[in-house]
Amino acid sequence: MAPRTLLKTLLALAFLVFPSHAAAQGIGSTSQTKENLDLPYDAIGEGSDEEIAPDIIQFYGQNYEGDGIFYVIDRSGSMQGSGELDIAKREVTRNIAEFSSRVQFGIVFFDVNILKYPSSGTPVDANSGQKQGAIGWVMGVPGGGGSCVMQGMTTGLKFANKASAQRRVLIYVGDGGGTCKGADENQYHKQTLAIIKGQNYNKAQINCVGVLNINDTRRQFMQALCRMNSGTYTEIKR
Q1: Is the pTM for the entire model greater than 0.85?
Q2: pLDDT tens digit string along 89-142?
């Protein structure tokens, strides 16, 4: 065999036995396998943590989504005399009974005074004991007189601000009245909006459920309260 032919034969055999580094690494290959292409850049596969879905509750026919849920309920004489206070209690207790264990919650009832659960002002986890205690407490709340919505809302926001929940939802139920200890209602509403805006530093979503006979001034107050705090306004007509 000629020397040149022999050299070519030896080189060919060497390539078969010892493939090039580039070929071993798949460079230039058209059969590479793609993995996790639909996952985020920093995905680490099935072992990665997933965001826990918040609870979805239905309250007065509306759906709200959160893992921190707080109620501010008007217990004035008009609420009690019309039967709306009892309806609000039923709505709240039904929600509490359905909470998953990942929910934090707190409850405020107001007239000229404030009643709250828990009395510490710190939200509680929705375990079976707290749920049972809260339901019994709500059902025992009496009616009152006057309507100090500013004080009720600021108390509800204190609950929300103390929560470790990621999605805080506050729901106010009432007629928008601001007849608090003889205050001028229009000025009281303006003060309430300004104070709530300043105190909602953890950006709880504030929603309003308007009940009873609501005049334009009170409706505008509730609509502004919700609009300023990324919430929704629902008016119940019976």
Answers
A1: no
A2: 999 999 999 999 999 999 999 999 999 999 999 999 999 999 999 999 999 999
89 in any annotated domain: yes
* Alpha helices, H only, 99-234: 128-139, 149-162, 185-199, 216-228
Per 3-state DSSP, the chain is made up of helix, strand and coil in percentages (nearest 5) of 40, 20, 40
Give the helix/strand (H/E) hosting 92: helix 84-98
**One-letter identity of residue 54:** P
Distance CA 8, CA 3 (A): 9
The answer to whether 70 and 156 have CB atoms below 8 angstroms apart is yes
- Choose among 182, 185, 176, 180: nearest CA to 225: 176
E strand spans, 60-174:
62-66, 68-74, 104-110, 114-117, 124-125, 168-174
> Would you say residue 36 lies in a domain?
no
Range of the domain at 164: 55-235
List pLDDT tens digits, range 62-89: 999 999 999 999 999 999 999 999 999 9
37 is a domain residue = no
Say if 175 falls within a structural domain. Answer: yes
3-state secondary structure of 108: strand
Check which CATH number belongs to the domain holding 189 and give it: 3.40.50.410
Total domains in the fold of the chain: 1
